[in-house]
Amino acid sequence: MRFLGIDLGTGSLKLAIVDEDGREVAFSSAAYAVTSAHPGWAETPPDAWYSALVNAASRLPANEREAVSAIGFSGQMHGVVPTAADGRALRAAMLWPDTRARDLLDAWPEPQPNPVAPGMAGPLLRWLALNEPQVAADTRWALQPKDWLRARLGGAAFASFLTDPSDACATALGRPSGEWDDALIDRLGLPRAWFAPLAASHERAGALSEQAASALGLRAGIPMAVGAGDTPCAALGSGLSSDGDALLTTGTGGQIVVMCAAAPAPVHGLHTYRSATGAWYRMAAMQNVGVALEAVRGWLGYASWPEAYDDAFAANASASVSFLPYLSGERSPWMNPDARGGWLGLGLDDTRGTMMRAAFEGVAFALRAGLDAIRGNLGEHGTTLDSMRLAGGGSVDPRWRQLLADALRVELHAVDCPNAATRGAAILGGIAAGHWRVDDLASLAPAATLAATPRANASLDERIARFIGLYKRAEDWFAPRRESA
Prior knowledge:
This protein is α+β, with helices and mostly antiparallel strands. The protein has helices at residues 46-58, 62-66, 121-131, 133-138, 145-153, 165-168, 182-187, 210-216, 230-237, 290-299, 305-314, 352-375, 398-408, 420-432, 458-484, and strands spanning 2-8, 12-19, 24-31, 43-44, 68-75, 81-83, 93-94, 141-143, 204-207, 223-225, 228-229, 246-250, 254-260, 271-274, 280-286, 322-324, 342-344, 387-391, 411-415, 448-452. It comes from Caballeronia ptereochthonis.
């Protein structure tokens, strides 16, 4: 018995087939472009997702595909696909990095239960209603990306037009519980009928159509789970199932996710969303992790990452040089889209190794700021947070792992699961098929190896305090720039 997980990401689609014990037995992926017809736009034609799915499926072993008994979905969050009644996408999908609705956020005055960004479905649909009235008039469903793909695979049967609380709560149109906020939708002048009925992530949402089955090399009629957003799927696939379980992911951005059995109180700068299993999670989302380090590596002329790591960690940590990594603004905990970065404290005797080391430290300290916000606002939900799982392609080098453990003051346990969101999606498919129950999830947690233990370091603590103080002083400088822009 096999289960297929589909992870619809921003720039690529990933597939994983897992066996009856939750072990990955096959994997493939296919990329597509995010286009920008105008400055600040971020779009992908949904048909490109379907083409990528067919492409990726063709490279999975035929015998493994034939054994697939159910499908689950993970998807990039926040964006939206305006869809006709028959399931056709009416325009390119508008995605989470999109900023075209930045001037329309006045409909979400502070305080909000969750941070609102211009690339969320609410602001994007408000823009659509104002700027593309014909598309808005033809829209029957405003779907999240994974929900559009699932409907496409189901032949657009009505049972496929569903969404789940983990995605709905992150649209800026739903309550943190995941229920649609009818009063807000009405106040925005958007049709309530656009928004799909809610179902649990592991519930069935139709079956694979004959046409899609033929294209993918799968059996027609196998059940499809509703699915969940990529962050809750990654948490599920990484083994987070109990109150207080925590995960750090480092990639282009970084996320710190902590599971909560009950809804934590809203906190400015942190996200409170529903998990893929009906519980909750608190999240700090930092957008300047791998993206900032990659920029610095290029600026300093390192030809490869091993060269950058070697030079940085051969250099002594500087007592005077700090690096703010906020090259594209920042989300948690500052919620400051106008924040910017750079080095301060450089002297003539500093080297590019010093600068690269300061960049690694700056990113680690930015993650620490997000974690401190969680630690201070979790109440009984694992306040100490002295142990976390670690995942993501940006956390492989052992020296970088040690710096993260030292800066965050946590034990880091590397998860043996390179495709966590895809695995989480497959597990949802297995639950929809009746092979597993939600109560079984703890037993499905992948192995995790101790990667780094925090070491006491007074000078590091001083540098962290200097970093936080530097950002707060720089924040006063950013504000006048916003006002004069």
